[in-house]
Amino acid sequence: MAQNNITKQIDSVNNLPYQSKIANTTKFLKIYQDNLAKAQKAKYKIGIADSYSNLSLMYYFQGKYDLNTAYMLKATRLYQQLNLKDKQANSFAVYGYQLKLRDMNSAVMYMQKGMKLAESIKDEFSLSGIYDNYGVLKEMQNQLDSALFFYNKSLKIKEKLKDNPGIPYSANKIALVKLMQNKPSEAKTLLDYAYKIRSDIKDVYGIAENLNYYGFYFKQIKDDKQSISYFKQAIEWSKKHDFPYLTQDNYKELSSVYERNEDFRKALQAFKNHIEVKDSIFNSDVRNKQSELDIEYETEQKEKEILIQKAKLAEKNLWILGGFSLAIIAILLGFLLFSKQKQKTLQLQKENELKDALLKIETQNKLQEQRLRISRDLHDNIGSQLTFIISTIDNLKYGLKNQDEKIINKLTSLSGFTKETIAELRDTIWAMNKDEISFEDLKIRISNFIENAQIASSGIDFEFNCQDHFAPISLSSVEGINSYRIIQESINNALKHAKATKVSVEVLCQNQFIEIIIKDNGIGFNEATTNLGNGLSNLKKRAKELNGEILVTSQLKEGTTVVLKFNKK
């Protein structure tokens, strides 16, 4: 009976709702590490395998993809040993879906392994989800006929199983592909089918989503009157039921319809509303998280004050007792009591000092956890939204490939700008995830950037030299990102404006200083007559945050040199 209770506890933790797990991966990472230890102690193999699977999921959302892969493989091997083919199939498929933005070939391979295994055991419920996700991979590869094939397979299974919440998801996916294939009547039939089911089961979020799809549908077929009507309905429904992400997207789409009709006043107002809702989402998240920290900090301060007051009161009472005792008993006994009081006071002081140290450590840990949570939100929310924008732009380019070349060029420019934004976001997350950045880590980051610049810039010779004795040196996250950004901006300036054939980066350790020199052999400029504007101001601002200094020198036809110098630690 005791063994059964332990396994039930392990299973209950492993089977917690998906949304609960990913809401706080730092917390649940520790929970599943403890759950794994319990399962291993109890020699409960299913619990061990499920804990491996959950740890893989936590590491995926934290961006630790090496650990994500390692624990997925451990879970899969153990499921295979236990002959749990349904769980093994889902493990392969989930991992394949997680790989879609990092390695499409591997994503397809793992998804197919999971699919074949689920098909071999005729696990229809698992297959409905796997077919949908495999269709997403095909759609991302612009293989629209294949995407439709798997979306339809999923829809048939869901209809057979009477999976009413799942049916509209597949129907809408098929409708959007039909719309991309310029088959609006088929798309409309599927959208109506999905909307009716969601209305019947009172799926509030699903109704909001389908109203958005209707607006997009009529926008694509250029029925702007209907498109505007549905986007307004979608906005009203989303606001009523508090779906801010859908609300801001509806405002954005509504703005583009107004703009196409040259109603620029309404287009501007709708776009302002889009920005306002988008900012409120971000500000609300930040305020809520900051408020939690403020409340925790204030509580800790109050507890500290109470301890100090108790200590003072205890000290006062003991002094009174000592004085009264001195008046009654001999001087020797009074001296002993005074010594004892002094010892207790010192003990209380040490206890308070220890309490202060523990409070400080706990606050620092919570602040670090907050930083990780914000960086994860940036990665999961903003990063995925930017990736979705790129995918949408590429799909629009494909759908408009025979249309106005100016529009295609504009979409290409917008796609490139969004990809650069994702790269900068990843650099920022890289810095936020670390308390300290080793110089070796920064060196690798710089080297990778220069290699990418070399690939993208034909006819330019890059050189990177860095001394080997930087191992004991570390930088804060702010120092690391500012050093990296200065080098990045200096190289970009050389590529865009200098017409250089050679760019060199050299990192030196001079006494107590670190010196970084970026030099090109380009056309240069006249320092006396050229206004460097915001570019130099940004470099100086970053150098100031490093408590260092930056010097930019140049002569016509002799290139430009940027020297950054700051104290090492």
TrEMBL record:
<keyword id="KW-0067">ATP-binding</keyword>
<feature type="domain" description="Histidine kinase">
    <location>
        <begin position="485"/>
        <end position="569"/>
    </location>
</feature>
<keyword id="KW-0472">Membrane</keyword>
<dbReference type="InterPro" id="IPR036890">
    <property type="entry name" value="HATPase_C_sf"/>
</dbReference>
<dbReference type="Pfam" id="PF02518">
    <property type="entry name" value="HATPase_c"/>
</dbReference>
<dbReference type="InterPro" id="IPR005467">
    <property type="entry name" value="His_kinase_dom"/>
</dbReference>
<keyword id="KW-1133">Transmembrane helix</keyword>
<keyword id="KW-0812">Transmembrane</keyword>
<keyword id="KW-0547">Nucleotide-binding</keyword>
<dbReference type="InterPro" id="IPR011712">
    <property type="entry name" value="Sig_transdc_His_kin_sub3_dim/P"/>
</dbReference>
<dbReference type="Pfam" id="PF07730">
    <property type="entry name" value="HisKA_3"/>
</dbReference>
<keyword id="KW-0902">Two-component regulatory system</keyword>
<feature type="transmembrane region" description="Helical">
    <location>
        <begin position="318"/>
        <end position="338"/>
    </location>
</feature>
<keyword id="KW-0808">Transferase</keyword>
<protein>
    <recommendedName>
        <fullName>histidine kinase</fullName>
        <ecNumber>2.7.13.3</ecNumber>
    </recommendedName>
</protein>
<dbReference type="InterPro" id="IPR003594">
    <property type="entry name" value="HATPase_dom"/>
</dbReference>
<keyword id="KW-0418">Kinase</keyword>
<dbReference type="GO" id="GO:0016301">
    <property type="term" value="F:kinase activity"/>
</dbReference>
<dbReference type="InterPro" id="IPR050482">
    <property type="entry name" value="Sensor_HK_TwoCompSys"/>
</dbReference>
<keyword id="KW-0597">Phosphoprotein</keyword>
<dbReference type="InterPro" id="IPR011990">
    <property type="entry name" value="TPR-like_helical_dom_sf"/>
</dbReference>
